[in-house]
Amino acid sequence: MNAAAGRRDLLVGALAIGGGLTVMWLAAQIRGMPGQPFSPGFAPSIIGGLAALVGAVLVLRAALGHAPALESEEADPGPPFRAAALWVGGGILVIAALFETIGFVPLLLVWLAGFLMLTGVRLLPAIAFAVPMVFGMDLAFTKLLGVPLPPGEWMIALGLLG
Length: 162
Known about the structure:
There is one protein chain. Helix 4 packs antiparallel against helix 5. By secondary structure, the chain is mostly helical. The longest helix has 26 residues. It is 71% helix and 0% strand. The protein contains 6 helices and no strands. It holds the Pfam family TctB. InterPro entries: DUF1468. This is DUF1468 domain-containing protein.
């Protein structure tokens, strides 16, 4: 394994561990909801734990000198990759800021379809993939886990919801 790839796996792994543990700590701060089988922090705790686990695997691979988890022929992945990476990071910040106002479904539809298009997927296939994925996630959180996701203040203002 080349040294740069090992350092990259070590860095990404450490960031995943730190981020995952932070998510788990923040999720533990969320109060439970009376009558709900799961607290609203349940799903983020699972995701944070999985991120920390993946990070630990990457750190272990780097420490033991195994081949890098991701290898690329190109030194520079190019503008589409960088744009998609910025879309993911920036999109998460925008979603966090506008989650209550705009709502889960519209924000995630735009975010996922936009990401897919930045990675080379055409508009209609991106929408065809994003719609069932986002509505499936919404149903999983609201119906299966009992975690209410905000529909958006605009839906209430238009009289579409209570």
